[in-house]
Amino acid sequence: MVGRLPKPSYDNSNIEGRIVVNITVTPAGKVASASINAKGSDPNASASSYLREKALEAARKAVFEASNGKNNQNGTITYYFKITR
User: Fold this and answer.
1) Contact 31/73 with Cβ under 8 angstroms?
2) Nearest to 3 by CA among 83, 42, 59
């Protein structure tokens, strides 16, 4: 199975910036957990509950290639929210 990394929905609000999400991926390629990485995220963006929730929703829907291992793998996904006018 080929991976899938969905884009978060975004209402083009007046908030933009980088949100980094920590993820744990099972050997089957499914995201087991997702949390905001505040240190890697832009302060203004991570202060927005809207952007945090949209990033987490998208990260939880991500699917990665299955691995032959038996252990979960940890990583990050970085989302950039940009206002378009």
Assistant:
1) no
2) 59
* pLDDT tens digits, one per residue of 29-73: 999 999 999 999 999 999 999 999 999 999 999 999 998 889 999
Q: What SS3 state is found at 51?
A: helix
Please answer whether residues 15 and 45 qualify as being in contact, where contact means their C-beta atoms are separated by less than 8 angstroms. yes
How many helices and strands, by DSSP H and E, does the chain display? Answer: 2, 3
* Owner of token pair 């933009």: 16
Please give the order of strands across the beta sheet that includes 31-36: 31-36, 17-25, 73-81
